[in-house]
Amino acid sequence: MNIEKNIINIKKKISIAAYESNRNPQEITLLAVSKYKSCENISDAIKAGQYQFAENYAIEGFKKIQYFSYNDKIIWHFIGSLQTNKTKIIAQYFDWFHALDNEKIAKRLNSQRSHYKSKLNVLIQINISNENSKSGVKLNNLNDLVEKIINMPNLLFRGFMVIPAFESDYNKQYDTFYKVKCIFNIFKNKYSTVDTLSMGMTNDIKAAIHCGSTIVRIGTGIFGVR
Ligand SMILES: *Cc1c(COP(=O)(O)O)cnc(C)c1O
């Protein structure tokens, strides 16, 4: 397992996919998904110049943030689904939350975020594959949630995140991501703070970038299988 090599490889993939779709690779942020991975693994990634990390579990993430607190370059994203009783950890310690899908969580994050800190960057997770069991907001409820969160002073609405149902075929991945791109563009034109689309993982990074993703969330491709 050579984390540095993996990061170089993923960056190459990002550049190629960007050029294929006439995009500037610098518009695309590589987010290293470090869930279940050790602080040693994260240190290796930092040595390779990686500073944006994502965690899925509040307590695990909090411990890593404490461990690396001497390094103020690191930006921490929370990408997991969030239980009500864990919102304070996210509000106090993280920079980004990608999986906002209800008003109750938004209200808690807003009231628990100190106004001395910069606003918490939030992405609304869209349930694009419309599976009943999965988290994310259904399209017909999206406007309502957006209108509620844009008035919350300690949250900054930056855009959307999606986790589509697993699909290995590029064309099918593309069709799903293309729908998200269209939704993103509508909101981007309406709200000046919207500039971020978190989509694409190790398995579908190319289709995601071809459809305008600005953050790709890569776990396996950097740290190996979990
Ligand atoms: C684990 C995880 C990832 C990373 O997936 P890989 O396939 O390992 O790249 C991305 N996004 C979310 C929300 C995850 O939970």
From TrEMBL:
Entries under InterPro entries matching the protein: Ala_racemase_N, PLP-binding_barrel, PyrdxlP_homeostasis
Sequence positions bearing N6-(pyridoxal phosphate)lysine: 35
Superkingdom, natural source: Bacteria
Domain Alanine racemase N-terminal: 48-225
Keyword set, alphabetical order: Pyridoxal phosphate
SUPFAM superfamilies in the cross-refs: PLP-binding barrel (SSF51419)
Residues of the signal peptide: none
NCBIfam families the record matches: YggS family pyridoxal phosphate-dependent enzyme
Quaternary state and interactors: Monomer.
Reported function: Pyridoxal 5'-phosphate (PLP)-binding protein, which is involved in PLP homeostasis.
UniProt similarity note: Belongs to the pyridoxal phosphate-binding protein YggS/PROSC family.
Protein name, UniProt field: Pyridoxal phosphate homeostasis protein
Gene that specifies this protein: yggS
